[in-house]
Structure formats: C-alpha cells, structure tokens
Amino acid sequence: MAGLESPADVVVRNLSVRFGQLQALDKVSLVAQRNECLGLVGESGSGKSTVLRIIAGLIAGWEGEISVVGEPVRDTRRPAHLFRRLQMVFQDPYGSLHPRQTVDAILLEPLAIHRLPIRADTTAQALAEVGLSPDLRFRFPHQLSGGQRQRVAIARALMLQPTILLLDEPTSALDVSVQAEILNLLARLRRDHGLTCILVSHNLPVVARLAQRILVLDHGRVVEELTAADLSAGRARSAPAQAMIAAALHRRSLAASPRLADVASSVEDR
Ligand SMILES: Nc1ncnc2c1ncn2[C@@H]1O[C@H](COP(=O)(O)OP(=O)(O)OP(=O)(O)O)[C@@H](O)[C@H]1O
Ligand SMILES: [Mg+2]
C-alpha cells in the first residue's frame, strides 16, 4: 500500500455498510498517517461512530478495504497484535466502564486478557499518566466524577500501549471546563506517546483543538476535507460544513466571544 515509506496507520478505501434499508456509509475513504490526528465531523446520524466502530472491528458485513499499520483487516477478526495497537474511547465513560469493577480491575483487565505482566505499581502509574491520584484505585465508576471516569477510560485504552486511538466524542458528555482539561490531556498523551488519532465529534472547536485535518461526513459520505486553518478562517464549501461552522460561531457568540478563530487559537498544543 506504500512505497519505501512506512505505511499510514489507518487506511480506509470505499467503505460502505447498510443497516437494513439505510445506506449508513457510502464509499468512505480516509487516511490517518502515523502521529496524525484526523478529525471526523458531521451531524448526528451522518455515520461517524459507524466508521470508528468498523475500524475497531465492532461491526461486521461492510464492504471496502481497511488496513491498519499496513495490514489489511477483514470483518470483525483482528489478530491480537493489531487489536493491541488500536484502541477506542467512547463518548459515555459511564456506559463503557463496567459498573461492578473497581478502577484497579478495569485497568488490569486488558493486561490479564493479553497475559501481560502486572507490577505492583502498574495501576498507580496508569492513573498518574492521566492525572489521577492512586487513591482512586478502589473506587467504582459511580464514585467518580464524569471527568475522572473519562480519564479512567483513557487510561484503560492506553494499558496495551496502542499506537492508534479511536476517539468517539470523548468529551461531549462533559461540562465545558472539564472538556478542555480532557482535550489538553489527549494532546499531551498524543505528544508523549506519538499516538495516531481519529477524533470524532459533532463539535468543530473540539476537533480543531486536536486535529490538523478534518473530514466532513454527511449522510454516510465524505463531502469535504478542511484544515484547521480553513476552520479558523471559516472557509468551507459544503453546506454541512458551513452549517457546523455557523453552529460553532453561534455557540461561541452565546459564550461572548465572536470569532471561531479565538476558539481554534486557544489550543494549547496542536
Ligand atoms: N447497529 C445499527 N443498526 C441499525 N442502524 C444503525 C446501527 N448503527 C447505526 N445505525 C444508523 O446508522 C446511521 C449512522 O449512525 P452513527 O451512529 O454512525 O451516527 P453518528 O454520526 O455517530 O451520530 P451521533 O453524532 O448521533 O453519534 C444512523 O442513522 C443510525 O441510526
Ligand atoms: Mg456517534
């Protein structure tokens, strides 16, 4: 799939899937290069989560081609070494963390499944990595704040030392101030671990915060590719992208700052 250079981390070509009568994805193509953060935006129901879930091997019956670190994958089968390299973080950390497991058990489970070594300080270190105190080890998910839960979900995704993170609306269940903290955490983790990300959101400023390149999905099709600079300048051709920029500006004006550029440039480390 590549010449002499190393292959892109994720390559998707002509990905299509139907759910009954609904053509949920129609020939979606995307490439996420090593260390890149690719944004995927679109209105509710445009197919964003479906793209990530198919890449993660959670949905069967699709057509097209997908390769992960240069290896073609099919259906829902993933060899263990690829499974470890690609992890997903979901929108709702409450739903994605087992309610009867302690934080300790949640973090150690992926290592146990893959029969990887566990040290006495494994969970404390994993918690420190996401800015949490080791005191939280023996709490249950309902005993954590929303932001703490999402940090635990991110820590769990990192336990197998993946190179690719699929982030599905990782901050939309959180308060605005906590959203910013989680986005900064993700930016730092990306930098420290050289992670490749595909970040899904219906919120353009959230995506602009981490992604350099942004694909706009509409009714299961990619209708436009924007750079973070296009976004800051409000440059978009397609109606769905223009509508999302208008919505972001509207939210921003409600928050008393007139320009989307302010939002995109408030990025700590893009
Ligand atoms: N397992 C499924 N069975 C049937 N239809 C599905 C399934 N998963 C998704 N869909 C439908 O496919 C379309 C795309 O869904 P998807 O969850 O990918 O959208 P999304 O862009 O992530 O939306 P949101 O922003 O609301 O999360 C929607 O119309 C949805 O109802
Ligand atoms: Mg979704």
Structure description:
The chain is of the alpha/beta class. It has one domain: 3-Layer(aba) Sandwich (Rossmann fold). Helices cover 38% and strands 24% of the residues. It has 11 helices and 10 strands. The chain has helices spanning 48-55, 80-85, 93-96, 103-113, 122-129, 146-158, 176-193, 204-210, 228-233, 239-254, 260-265; strands at residues 10-19, 22-32, 37-42, 63-68, 71-73, 86-89, 164-168, 196-201, 213-218, 221-227. The strands form 2 sheets. The chain has a 6-stranded mixed sheet, sandwiched between helices. Helix 6 runs parallel beside helix 7. The longest helix is centred in the C-terminal third of the chain and has 18 residues, at 176-193. 39% of the residues are buried. The model is unreliable at 265-270 (pLDDT under 50). The structure holds adenosine-5'-triphosphate (ATP) and magnesium ion. Residues 19, 22, 24, 42, 44-50, 202 line the site of adenosine-5'-triphosphate.
